[in-house]
Amino acid sequence: MTDKARMVNENQCQMCMPLGGVLAFKGVEGAMPLVHGSQGCSTYMRLASVEHYNEPIDIASSSLNEKQTIHGGEGNLRKALDNVLRIYQPKVLGVVTTCLAETIGEDMQRMIKGYVEGRNLKGVDIIPVNTPSYAGSQSEGFWAATRAIVEYYARPGGKHDGVNVIIPHISPADIREIKRILDLTGIEYTLLPDYSMTLDRPYGGQYTKIAPGGTRTADIARMTGAKATIQFGTTCPEELSPGRYLQQEYGVPLINLPLPIGLENTDRFTEALGQLTGLPVPDTLVIERGWLLDAMADAHKYNAEGRPVIYGEPELVYAFASVCAENGAYPAVVATGTSSSQLTARLRLLLAEADRKSVLLEETDFTAIESAAVSTAANIAIGHSGGKYLTERRGIPVVRMGFPIHDRIGGQRILSAGYAGTLAFLDRFTNALLEQKYASYRQLKREQLLDHISIEGDQ
Ligand code: SF4
Hints:
- By secondary structure, this protein is an alpha/beta fold.
- It is built from 17 helices and 13 strands.
- 48% of the residues lie in helices and 11% in strands.
- The two termini are 46 Å apart.
- Bound molecules: iron/sulfur cluster.
- The site of iron/sulfur cluster has 8 residues, from helix 2.
């Protein structure tokens, strides 16, 4: 069941499209994002990012106001570009649009072309991306910017043995885990966008305006000659898919996989790597897989009582629905605020064999999610801080994952990828169920006893 018929959005379950674009640009070395729109848009994006990542995160703005809304914002954009180039000296300047810029019809390609032609710009690439928030969520913004980055740098080059690894919006800890798995196999790779250091900087004493780290642009240019692209984007719309672009334009084979979260999903990743390298799965990963299996056996008797609500960005939601299903905690509700993903179709296949039916919600909000949680007697949730009302109003604990997490610390360090990350998640999930059970079962028993006494008394 979807709730497409509901036209009003109350307490939304997604964040805005340019924010996803900003985060993707943070994964390119030397990049600085600029939001073409009002101050309020970039302030909101800064606030959401800083609260989640606990880092100083600069996001520039062209600061449009009423005047530019009527007369056009090209002058402001030029000033903003001048200032960002002077103050930050970026190698890459990612310009994302907002609802306002798109509504007044700003022609980004023409404006950026005109700006570049009038100057002798060396050592900086300016990449515009259209991200009208009324047309998509942060998830689409992230894919759109990642594809724009690939399209900008892609050029014909020599074939090589490396692989491309393209990720959706996941935590820096998960990026590091995926890189560790890749390193264990010994494969050469380019991971894009890599914000594992830029959005989770180690304390080093020396502050720099642009954080070190990120995918090198020279490596992005070489993605066209790779042996294959592994893209964790089974819910990614075709027209936004960077891997599909590399396949269609440069013939790079695309291996589109779910995120390696869960036993089966991680198996698919390690099997793909095995086929690409011609080597068996490294011993370290075999041991970690064994630990995960052991943990699944330990936890299944508790997880069978779990009826989770899973919400957030489509690719994460799909991965966590898989983990829950393979651990016997059949999802009660699976929901995303995004409208254009393939999530519902993918979930129908995943959950087809389940004996209990799940409520599937796309383009939804927290009012609909809360109501579905109550009607399905859900007893646990997995998602970001937007769902904290499930706990406050309904007593349903939320195991934090995704973005944004602003009511806990460590959102950037939440590890769920790979065998080791799945095991860590499984412990968090099972312990949340147990905590809920032990916090309330004596009270339940007492209420049942009192009911019993009063029924006997009535007789
Ligand atoms: S106005 Fe649009 S772009 Fe700006 S913060 Fe709101 S949703 Fe995002």
